[in-house]
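Subject: mismatched residue count in predicted assembly?

I count 948 residues in my input, but I want to confirm that the predicted structure covers every chain. Input:
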Amino acid sequence: MKKIDMIVKAPHFFTMAGDGVGYQTGTAMLVNGGKIAGFADSARVDAEYAAEETLLLERHAVLPGFIDAHMHTGLAIARGLAQDTNNWMMYGLQPFDNVIGQSARDAGSRLAIVEAVRAGTTTLGDYEHQMDEVCAFIKKIGARGHVTQLIREAKRRVYDPGELYEYDPAMGETAFNRCLALYDRWHGEADGRIRILFGPQGADFLSLELLLKIQKAAKERKTKIHMHVQQGDRETYQIEKRYGKRPIAWLSDAGYLDDTLIAVHLTDANDDEAAVVARSGAGMIVCPGSIGIIDGVVPPSTAFQDAGGNCGLGSDQAPGNNCHNIISEMKSVALFNKIKYKNPETMPAWRALRMATIEGARAIGLSESIGSLEEGKRADFIAVDLKKPTMLPVYTAPMRNIVPNLVYSARGDEVALSAVDGRVIYRDGRVLAVDEETVIGDLENFVPDIGRDATEEFWRIHGTNAEFMEKGRL
Amino acid sequence: MKKIDMIVKAPHFFTMAGDGVGYQTGTAMLVNGGKIAGFADSARVDAEYAAEETLLLERHAVLPGFIDAHMHTGLAIARGLAQDTNNWMMYGLQPFDNVIGQSARDAGSRLAIVEAVRAGTTTLGDYEHQMDEVCAFIKKIGARGHVTQLIREAKRRVYDPGELYEYDPAMGETAFNRCLALYDRWHGEADGRIRILFGPQGADFLSLELLLKIQKAAKERKTKIHMHVQQGDRETYQIEKRYGKRPIAWLSDAGYLDDTLIAVHLTDANDDEAAVVARSGAGMIVCPGSIGIIDGVVPPSTAFQDAGGNCGLGSDQAPGNNCHNIISEMKSVALFNKIKYKNPETMPAWRALRMATIEGARAIGLSESIGSLEEGKRADFIAVDLKKPTMLPVYTAPMRNIVPNLVYSARGDEVALSAVDGRVIYRDGRVLAVDEETVIGDLENFVPDIGRDATEEFWRIHGTNAEFMEKGRL
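Triage response: the counts match. Full output below for your records.
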């Protein structure tokens, strides 16, 4: 009898090994030291292995935990306050963003992280200005954090239409140094579950000099740059006016497109530009729900993939999406691309599931350790309850229908259990290490002040949502 | 003290009265004799009214129950067996549809209806060949049924490409008579909660003679015709070849476009054709998820609305959608149209919510009795739990964010309670009148036989999903 930490018994494993979904049945998964130790014949596993713990998941399918590769969790404090409007930043978010303090953002992060974990996310690609509290919370609940701190050099002020951003090198330097300090404090913490990435906000928000300095620092530390790339016509305008090139061409000439880069959005990139990024070895993250709501655009993720690139999924932020639920993003990326190409065979369910797991892991440089259930990888997995109405009935012959139903039918509450590094962090509706009522209560404390402080600018700017309030439409 | 049946206390009511969302606060809803008796000041209601029952919904928003205006619930027995393929009918559904008997379809219906109710649907627009068991189940659980029995005259056989369907008048007559008999048995049953509509399958599947006979019978009975209209290039081809006109032009000339008609899909209709239907007074139902998956198309529902028509939402069927969750359809109709028109202001959340409630009720001719919470209407309502992470935080000033979060963030499990005719039918995860385990068990009994019986044709036809099985992608 070999001693191991855990045996995971389930009738269906979607390991995501190989180029499909790596289906296995009649096996049990072995976990030891936080890693997957392999699979054993389920009929013999109890005779061959003595486990500290056995997870009996008799009505479940087991899969790798989902990767939400791009999130601004702090903005969950402003969920639902910005959508259905042109110029989302100005007419939607600004009146609120201006008055939300750091502790409110941290409370928002805790809610969004709980929300994401409840729907099967185990790796959180969070991205904001001040990430210490997020790191601490991810450590506390036992999840995996792929955390980026934002670096920006352009002064925060109102710019006239057509005006170039004004850089403040001292501000940029400070942000960069704060990112380095966060890296030193957190990278590799929580048994390696926390990794810190460098987050230049976008090509238009930093000088070339600072961008290259960040790149050098990231490469020296063997970490990644996580950057918004060609995320809108605003960025395209700024880069064209400043340098005479479109953003991706300029980044390419600057030597910024390579496998250190994780490129987010590509909202304003055409298919050829997406292919340029893909061929450079950079990863891509697409945020279908967010960009759909904010811009009415389907970014060129399939062109990126067709050029050989790996693309993950992100939920972005709650004002303008408005949720952190990777199952929703899987359905959206599949449907939006079917619609974009007028072809129901575009982006099938299994491909969307790969984006949420192994392809996402490759896109962000973590495929050596997560994204599939294979021997030697970290034991990050979820169990989906197949007795929920949305997953029923279950067929195994002549075809299996579990993956299409997970992608197109599941709501999120089918996820019954999540584990990271072989440790169960979520079960039966509860994130185990936190009291959800406390998370909610903390969040709600900030609401009256934010509402009051935003009121004057909300009515002064008088965006779409102000009009909706006046007309009784909210 | 006035005696009434029920007081519903909640901090937020979205009544959907007027042209917005009809928001009320500081009121309580009065229910008597299955109807809404009005609203009272929440501070004085207990002094003024003595109620048999008080629903205390202190953390909830109360709205009209959702209307799922077009469903084929029986096909839930085949959930997830047909998607991601061209020629959905042939390459996806056919191998399974051919071998599913009526009792299996009835079991599928029970599951789909439970699934829909769990996500807030109170009115079920179900549509199939044999609807007695569906009517009985809807009656049993206390929901509202807007039930259509299908009438078809075209022989069921394989047609060569380009071949016109062959009509079998005796078969059409039998189906029509069975529909009349269903009407006599069920219309007005369950205290009027069940209504029976006439369901010619589509303009291409019936002769003009039978279509007009059905129309006459529907008008005499003051019920509706619920018909697939210009639902694909197959229909367009058949009608053009037979009559030399496109389907909507032909139906218009035949006098079929009027307020007796509920026109579903319009997949292959252009904006002008949609406007023709709208101006005729016919209602429309759009099924965004289903048509997105099956065809990669966004039907012209906004053009229909712009021409003054009322359009409701439908979940269609589980093989090819794959869920019965109107919240998912609200998000899809909003996002798909933003993408179609490259405009984030297209189809805001409140408009999608109106489609699921009052506009849907108008589209199907039930707005005198349901779709909004107004005095004199039936007391069909749902309570949404605002303490779920997806609905948090809740702002009321300077703007309310509840509607955008319900449409864009909610998963379905936020619906904590549903009532129809003032009677609670769903609460805290349970459809009260049935044992969900029994519903699931009944369904699962049919799975082995269907899988076995479909196997030969599944592999012979060898569609996309057969290929996916061979390649380990399912």
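Residues 87 and 309 of chain B are 30 Å apart (CA to CA). Marking this ticket as 'not a bug'.
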